[in-house]
Amino acid sequence: MLDEERLNYVGAMVLGLNDALVELTGTIVGLTFVLANTTLIAMAGTITGIAATLSMAVSNYLAERADGNPKALKASVYTGFTYLLTVVFLVLPYLIFPENMFIGALVTMIAIVVALIAIFNFYIAVVKSESFWCKFAEMSLISLSVALISFVIGWLAKLCFGIDVA
Fold first, then answer.
1. How confident is the model over 30-56, as pLDDT tens digits?
2. pLDDT tens, position by position, 85-97
3. Domain-embedded: residue 112
4. Is 15 part of any domain?
5. For residues 69 and 51, what is the distance between their CA atoms, to the nearest angstrom?
6. Which residues, 6+ apart, have CB-to-CB distance to 54 below 8 Å?
7. pTM of the model
């Protein structure tokens, strides 16, 4: 049996990781086709990601306190740290690729999303003796579905607002 303190906070880490993957992947995918500029997308993703990190950490703290958890602060730190780390990984391709290579940055970000989901679910499967493939498939389906919906919203917003950055 593994007895690591962080295993007591797996729920907090899942909350931070999954919310960041769903929210920030959706936001960045939606913005990618509207802004078509890696620098602008990285800036918007960073601002959104940091604000969402703080919001998620504080919300988790308040929820844990409402449930009477004496370690609410520690749980919220795990949530916030996991969220912020995910933000860094998702924004990174947009900082590395040139401004006009937003499609390459997007494809790289999606690959990072799938890799993060795989790594996290593998860790959970090992320490909790759970099925990797079921958890991986579920989390991937949710995150990538939101990304697809956000792409459609971004594309429609671009059409509705007549944005043409080319």
1. 898 888 999 999 999 999 999 999 999
2. 999 999 999 999 9
3. yes
4. yes
5. 24
6. 80
7. 0.86
Class of residue 127 by CB neighbours under 10 A (exposed 0-12, middle 13-18, buried 19+): middle
Residue 88 lies in a domain: yes
Token duo for residue 68: 């009477």
Give just the sign of the alpha carbon dihedral 63, 68, 73, 74: negative
CA distance 122 to 120: 5
Q: How many domains does the chain have?
A: 1
End-to-end CA distance of the chain: 57
In a domain? residue 166: no
Q: Domain of 49?
A: 5-161
Listed in sequence order, the residues at least 6 apart from 59 whose beta carbon sits closer than 8 Å to its beta carbon are: none
Evaluate whether 41 touches 35 at the Cβ level (below 8 Å). Answer: yes
